[in-house]
Amino acid sequence: xxxxxSSAADSLDDDDYPAYTMGRAADVLGxxxxxxxxxxxxxxxTPLRSEGGHRRYSRRQLRIAARARELVDQGTxxxxxxxxxxxEDQLDDALRLNREIRRELDxxxxxx
Length: 112
Description:
The chain is mostly helical. Helices cover about 65% and strands about 5% of the residues. It is flat and about 55 Å long.
């Protein structure tokens, strides 16, 4: 396979590749472009910009926006939903780090 085709195929598998326009992203989420702008303004996701300045979203960003949409649909204000998701992500990171430290301590604890 030629190099340029390999690169294009790699982009299809990349969760961070900005493949979705604002309109398409809104359709996928069942949301409005205004909702996407709101989660962007709240700092939850930062879409990339095309050369023409249009917002482009990745699959990872759409998953995050979908979680915000779930919270908003349950009655949570957009800003609060974004904060909740940020805190959930921070908690996941802290728990993961805690597990790694405990694993290292368990491995080295037997040596001391």
